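RECORD TYPE: inverse folding
INPUT: structure tokens
STRUCTURE:
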């Protein structure tokens, strides 16, 4: 279960980076706007702000999740895997939605 939790964490990180990349291309189409108000605010301040924050946040949260996974007793790992699987599904859905709109 611990290995699966680590894999799901890495998959989430990759999906998060993919989301940032697809967002860049999607926003080049007229009429499309960023739905996340924080991301929209960062994009208004420049793409470097948005991507810098996105990379830093993803790396920090991912590293934190990997650290927690390494310290957590195995009896909680089922919950962790379930939550991470849900997170991966949500991010995959967001990514697919953005890809469809490009």
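DESIGNED SEQUENCE:
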């Amino acid at each position: 279960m611990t290995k699966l939790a680590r894999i799901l964490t890495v998959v989430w990180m990759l999906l998060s980076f993919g989301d940032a990349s697809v967002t860049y291309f999607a926003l080049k189409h007229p009429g499309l706007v960023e739905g996340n108000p924080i991301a929209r605010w960062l994009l208004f301040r420049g793409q470097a702000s948005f991507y810098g924050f996105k990379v830093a946040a993803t790396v920090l949260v991912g590293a934190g999740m990997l650290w927690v996974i390494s310290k957590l007793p195995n009896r909680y790992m089922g919950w962790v895997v379930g939550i991470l699987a849900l997170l991966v599904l949500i991010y995959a859905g967001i990514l697919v939605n953005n890809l469809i709109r490009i």
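NOTES: The mean pLDDT is 90.
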